[in-house]
Write a structure and sequence with these properties.
Length: 85
Amino acid sequence: MRTAEELGAEVRARRRELGLTQQELAARAHVTRQWIARLEHGHERAELDPLLRTIFQLEMELRVEPTVVEDDLDDYVRSFARAEE
């Protein structure tokens, strides 16, 4: 995943696979339904703690792996914020 939109799509797909509503997932992860909705739509610059709680409740794992970065750091960081524009 390289964008907030891709992360949101994965979260939405897994939530639906588990048969959870946004409200149910939010209650389990101790966040608001609106936070889940923004995350799923790629609009959230998610704080790590709520993101990890959400990922845990979806029985998913967040991995950070080495990759070849073709962009410079600023372009890479901006790619996550583009979903908010």
